[in-house]
Amino acid sequence: QVQLVESGGGLVLAGGSLRLSCAASGRTFTSYDMGWFRQAPGKEREFVAAITWSGGNTYYADSVKGRFTISRDNAKNTVYLQMNSLKPEDTADYYCAAHGPSSSWAPPDRNEYDYWGQGTQVTVSS
To answer: Which CA distances in Å does 9 have to 30, 43, 57, 119?
Structure first.
């Protein structure tokens, strides 16, 4: 129903910025809540940020609050993650995910999400 493709990852210096994009295809995109997760080598996939289908509510992990901003442009079927003041600890593969519209939602729980992108790598060097 929904296909997600992340882009925008790369190599940056600490303190730099990147904007990740998640392009979605599917008729029901605008009805999906969206999240960003990340996974560093040897670690579990962790919640980063989420946004409701309307864009009216956003959620952030404490580790990125104040530095990262999630947004969406439903007309473009795209979700963004603006990452500022990047730290080496932000190095990970970043995944976008879609939560179906028919159930309650706990944004940080990866099990809540029905669709996942393939990931885009972010490396922050010190």
So the answer is: 24, 19, 25, 9
3-state class of 11 per DSSP?
A: strand
d(CA 23, CA 10): 17
Kindly give, in sequence order, each residue whose CB lies less than 8 Å from that of residue 107, ignoring residues fewer than 6 positions away. Answer: 33, 35, 47, 50, 59, 99
Helix (H, G, I), strand (E, B) or coil at 90: helix
Instruction: Give yes or no for a contact between 96 and 22, defined as CB atoms under 8 angstroms apart.
Output: yes
Which helix (H) or strand (E) segment holds residue 62: the answer is none
pLDDT tens track for 4-44: 999 999 999 999 999 999 999 876 667 889 999 999 999 99
| 119 three-state secondary structure | coil
Name residues whose C-beta falls within 8 Å of residue 96's C-beta, 6 or more positions apart in sequence: 4, 6, 20, 22, 34, 35, 36, 37, 79, 81, 116, 117
Give tens-digit pLDDT for 72-110.
Answer: 998 898 999 999 999 999 999 999 999 987 667 899 999
